[in-house]
Amino acid sequence: MGAQEMDKQKVRERIIEIGVVPVVRASSPREARMAADAVCQGGIPIVEITMTVPGAVEVIREMTKSSAGEVLIGAGTVLNAEAAKRCLDAGAQFLVSPGLNLQVVQLAASEGKLMMAGALTPTEVITAWEGGSDFVKVFPCGQVGGAKYIKALKGPLPQVPLVPTGGVNLTTAGEFIEAGAAALGVGGELVQADALKSGQPEIIVEHARKFLAAVKEARARMASATVAAKGRH
Fold first, then answer.
1. Catalytic annotation on 137?
2. Is there a domain that residue 202 lies in?
């Protein structure tokens, strides 16, 4: 891609193709950069820097400059339009919110940037989708039934690309994909705080590889199940 910005369609395609959005919550800019480098090294060229990271906007600005478009850098925990604007000005390619703020969704749309609004109930999911969110982040998902909850939402809402976040770990990752998740939001189970504190990014690299493998395997199982089902007709 070079230094020019990816268009929204490419951002969407990359998130779906990789299937994992690492959520970086770190206690310093240095730790955030270490985490980003580690997930990239593990094969996930996507990173969501949350607004809870000290100096998050500057971290996004620096990382956007240094990655030259090779890594997709987004902003997380974006609570209002003012924060969204600062993140987009710093170069964020996508925005993620824990809940639904339609002003943030509208701002992202007007700037041509990908939006992943947070929602939990069917009403919120529909409101986020109709409001123009590109993906709907279902948060906190593990606390309300995990993969079973995603499967229940996909029944009446098959057209909405859902990204469960909260409760996604190596044990549940495959179940979430098979339940119909478009991609997975993974925080502390991938970007472990203790690995960052003790300066052991290799632990995160290894986990990134394992999450990617879990998504690939689950998708392969679904593909072969579809083939098998066609064969029975």
1. yes
2. yes
| Residue 70 annotated to the active site | no
- Residue pair 123/103 in contact (Cβ under 8 Å)? The answer is no
- pLDDT by residue for the chain (233 residues), tens only, comes to 344 468 999 999 999 999 999 999 999 999 999 999 999 999 999 999 999 999 999 999 999 999 877 899 999 999 999 999 999 999 999 999 999 999 999 999 999 999 999 999 999 999 999 999 999 999 999 999 999 999 999 999 999 999 999 999 999 999 999 999 999 999 999 999 999 999 999 999 999 999 999 999 999 999 998 888 888 76
Count the domains in the chain.
1
Distance in angstroms (rounded) separating the CA atoms of residues 158 and 151: 10
- Residue of 8, 137, 175, 189 marked catalytic: 137
pTM exceeds 0.90, yes or no: yes
Nearest to 171 by CA among 114, 211, 227: 211
Identify whether 2 is part of a domain.
no
State the catalytic residue, choosing from 8, 31, 48, 189: 48
Let me know if residue 107 belongs to a domain. yes
CATH number of the structural domain spanning residue 125: 3.20.20.70
Q: Is residue 166 one of the residues assigned to a domain?
A: yes
**Structural domain range at position 77:** 8-226
CB 176 within 8 Å of CB 150 = yes
